[in-house]
Write a structure and sequence with these properties.
Blueprint: H1 14-17, E1 21-24, E2 27-35, E3 43-47, E4 56-60, E5 64-68, E6 73-76
Parallel strand pairs: 1-6
Antiparallel strand pairs: 1-2, 2-3, 3-4, 5-6
Length: 77
């Protein structure tokens, strides 16, 4: 069960998430810069802001609650 946090829920592929907005319960966090779909080691890299103040944050795929494909939004817990 330790690898459950590193797995996507449902059927998500790399190309489906690149460029999507990332939102938490309190608002927008940034955009998905990269997503991987490695078995037991899936994650997303989030770009958190403008280039001069930006940080890139790695989040395990298991924190994704749902994906709104039409709106281009990924919701995380």
């Amino acid at each position: 069960m330790a690898t459950a946090i590193w797995a996507f829920v449902g059927h998500v592929t790399e190309r489906q998430l690149d460029g999507f907005e990332l939102r938490a319960s309190d608002g927008s966090i940034g955009t998905v810069d990269k997503a991987t779909y490695d078995v037991g080691a899936s994650y997303i890299v989030v770009d958190t802001g403008p280039w001069i103040f930006a940080k890139r944050v790695l989040l395990p795929a298991g924190v994704i609650q749902r994906v709104e494909r039409d709106a281009g939004v990924v919701h995380v817990g």
